[in-house]
Amino acid sequence: MCGIGGFFLPQPAAPDAINHMLAALSARGPDARHLVGWDAAWQREQQAPQRALLHTRLSIRDPRPEADQPMTNPAGDIWICFNGEAYGIEADVRELRKRGYSFRTTSDTEFILHAYQEWGLDGLIPRLRGMFALVILDLRQGKLHLLRDRMGLKPIVYSHEPKTGALVFASLVRGVLPLLPPERRQLSPGGIDAYLAHRYVPAPGTVFRHIRRLENGHLLSYDLHSGILEKRRYWYPQASAEDWRVALDEAIRLRMVSDRPVGIFLSGGMDSSVIATRLCAIQPTRPHVFTASFPGTTWDESGEAEAMARQLGLPFTAVPIDMNLARDFSRLVHDLDEPFADPSAVPTWYLSRAAVREVTVVFGGDGGDEVFAGYKRYRKHLRGAWRGALRLPLPTLPDWSSKGWKKNLAELALNWDDAYALRFSGLTPNQRAWLQPDQPPRPHYWRMPENPPHSPLQRLLAVDFENYLPEYILRKADLCTMSHGLEMRAPLLDHRFYESILGLPEAERFTRPAKALLALHAPETQPILERKKRGFNPPLGQWLEHDLRERFAGLGLRLNDLTGNQIATAPCDALMAHYLNGADFLAEQVLQLLILDESLAQLSQAGN
């Protein structure tokens, strides 16, 4: 795991800007940091290069300096920067050795480098099983390639200026900003509205007008001579006939490869528990289990997690989460990179900070709800599938007076597909229109499936696969773990396992609970898992009334200033007053605005 970055500019970059980029990426790679630069004639230049690749390393496989990056082939005409893990490479490594390639390291980075040289981009991609944000600089062909993994576990953001051909890219928005001139650091009105709608900015957008996020399963190709940038999708999931049980065990086994200590994030729920169960069945090692503990609360699952760990014979640590947001709010918002308002990011961030003291790699259960349709919102939204394109021409009015029936009216004002955005949203279109009088409201900013399935449930899952899973669930996991130098692995999002699940009949795949996963557990552990599913219901009232209360004063004026008058002062202050007068149901929206305030204030200074 690492931080990656680079730039290809029409003029040399300022040393201070380069240092800011490296600093922004340093938490993702605390073990080493390197830059390889060139001038306009492609001669090596380290002080003020015009073109460069940058890398900050979290060393997981072959921690020796020989495996540091950027890495090049012996001829020096192919370079690579890699963030992620490639699994199951052993057979291809043996084949490359037979073809005359020598390996100085045991890293997957060197395998990717040689595999690209031997088989090209189209031959490399099918051999990549895992998670990756990958940059390949091919000086032979005059091309730069940037790839994001199929499921979207690893991030790439970039800024391209078509007129000059300038290209800047990095793992984080804050890594790109230092290399942009002031006129290209403008906020995106649509990005701000998208954040208010979804609590995050879906790809390919960001909160900045000139910074884009590469979508999962896509790649960019940049011509070093013309400066032209092209994007294409390289992967569409296809149902396979492979036995999903075999595919899952293989996905878990392959992800055990590491030269650093490995642990498991165990919530007590089914998804992480099935990973722990199968791992114990196929591996002799006993990794350390970590779970977040919230003593005395309704969402504390540490008891169930401890019972599961005890049944499996795994060492167990419950981490009491002392969420002192008054102290840590600015740092947490910083580590989330751009405005991002998932309340569950808070305990994930604290748990990661504690776990990294013992391990460098953790397994997580991300993906189970999206693969097996575990969220309650699916069932709720399917009740209205009969509506199809039917919608009611309702008036656009601010709906601050209640949480229930007015949100139902907001759904009826949209067609059934668009209304799904309100099942897990921030502010409704009416609320956003009231806060932003000059911003035309949109139902959502999601990428919709190119060929939507006929099944209504499958349509909802396809929407989540394009948006919610990569840009909310996986972005949260990546940012919260990597900000502490911790790598998370998600076996349930192995693309081979995912495609094997797509081959199952709906009656077998979509059950409550997921009987397919439940059957993988030993009989003595099943009662732990058959209880009613619990989500994380954070103490928003406590956070807002105590930790963050001092941030309320002047919020409307600050947001008006930070957004260039996009968010109006009076409606924002009215919302805050309504919350303080007892409208507790607005707590999530209030937290969302407080995060936006802190994040935009930080970003206005990033790289300066």
Describe this structure in words.
- α7 packs parallel to α8.
- Strands 2-3-1-9-8-10 form a six-stranded antiparallel beta sheet.
- The protein folds into four domains: 232 residues, 4-Layer Sandwich (Glutamine Phosphoribosylpyrophosphate, subunit 1, domain 1); 191 residues, HUPs (Rossmann fold, 3-Layer(aba) Sandwich), CATH 3.40.50; 90 residues, no CATH class; 64 residues, no CATH class.
- It is globular.
- It contains 25 helices and 17 strands.
- It starts with a strand and ends in a 5-residue tail after the last helix.
- The longest helix has 17 residues.
- With 608 residues, the protein is of the alpha+beta class.
- It is 38% helix and 15% strand.
The radius of gyration computed from the alpha-carbon positions, rounded to a whole number of angstroms, is 24 Å
Task: Measure the end-to-end span.
Answer: 27 Å
How many domain regions?
A: 4
Assign the CATH architecture of the largest domain: 4-Layer Sandwich
Ordered list of secondary-structure elements with their pairings:
Elements: E1 2-8, H1 15-25, E2 32-38, E3 51-57, E4 71-72, E5 78-86, H2 90-98, H3 108-124, E6 130-138, E7 143-148, E8 157-161, E9 166-170, H4 173-176, H5 189-198, E10 212-213, E11 218-223, E12 229-233, H6 244-254, E13 262-265, H7 270-282, E14 288-293, H8 302-312, E15 316-320, H9 325-335, H10 345-355, E16 361-363, H11 368-372, H12 376-382, H13 405-412, H14 416-419, H15 429-435, H16 456-466, H17 468-482, E17 487-489, H18 495-502, H19 506-509, H20 515-518, H21 526-529, H22 540-547, H23 555-562, H24 569-580, H25 587-603
Parallel strand pairs: 13-14, 13-16, 14-15, 16-17
Antiparallel strand pairs: 1-3, 1-9, 2-3, 4-5, 5-6, 6-7, 7-11, 8-9, 8-10, 11-12
